[in-house]
Amino acid sequence: MHGPASPGWLLVALCAATGAYCLLRMRSTVEEQRRTAGGEALMGFGMAAMAVPAAVAAPPHWAWLGYAAVFGAAALRALWAARGGGHHLHHVVGACAMVYMAVVMAASPGHHHVHGGSGVPLLTGALLVYFTAYVLLSGFRLLPVAAVTGSTGSTGSTGAMLPGPARTPGWGDRPELSRACRLSMGIAMLAMLVTL
User: Fold this and answer.
1) Other Cβ atoms within 10 Å of 25 Cβ, number
2) How far apart are CA 102 and CA 163, in angstroms?
3) What integer pLDDT is reported at residue 173 of this predicted model?
4) Is 140 exposed, middle or buried (0-12, 13-18, 19+ CB in 10 A)?
5) Contacts of 134 by beta carbon, 8 Å cutoff, 6+ apart
6) Using an 8 Å Cβ cutoff, are 7 and 195 in contact?
7) What's the rounded Cα separation, in Å, for the pair 118 and 150?
8) 30 phi and psi angles, rounded to 5 deg
């Protein structure tokens, strides 16, 4: 993506770290989480590769077409998985956004140009609105909620919680960490769309 080098490297680091965490989440015992984490890892590493500042390593024209093909296949896979509902529709939108950015970058590898007039292209604007709403919703979901009563542990005479049979999920299975991961990728997607 075109833009200043320092923010570009920060974006690369954020996306690569998110992709690495998603790879670790693939060790989950829950099949659906493994599948979702795999798609998110691909997205994180793909975004990291696309965010490398052009002044450092300007990819050849065919690389952008390769990104478009990889994320087109990822969009089709997510669309197939979306038949069961869940988070897969967001993956479809994200993969399609990556295809769109790759096609735009392939069409204008050395400079920015606006498609047909002044202002933001309609598709870019729609993606910016979608990912802004997604980031706000994801951030809202990370806000702490009041402790839930009626957990599986029992309270002793002092009112302190005694250990119960409940098993604490591993750090890779914790929902707040996967939400933070998705929030990071949503923010990175916004940053990439703004520089488009």
Assistant:
1) 24
2) 52
3) 64
4) exposed
5) 90, 186
6) no
7) 58
8) -95, 120
* Beta carbons within 8 Å of 175's beta carbon, 6+ residues apart: none
Instruction: With CA atoms as reference, report the closest residue to 90 among 130, 38, 33.
Output: 130
pLDDT in tens, 110-152: 544 444 444 578 999 999 999 999 999 998 988 876 544 444 4
Q: Angle at the Cα of 19 (from 34 to 120), degrees rounded to 5?
A: 115
- DSSP three-state, residue 176: helix
52-108 pLDDT tens trace: 887 777 788 888 999 999 999 999 988 888 776 666 788 899 999 999 999 998 887
Q: What is the DSSP string of 123-188?
A: HHHHHHHHHHHHHHHHHHHTS--PPPSS-SSEE-TTSPEEP-SPPPPPGGG-HHHHHHHHHHHHHH
Helices 175-195 and 31-51: crossing angle in degrees, nearest 10, is: 30
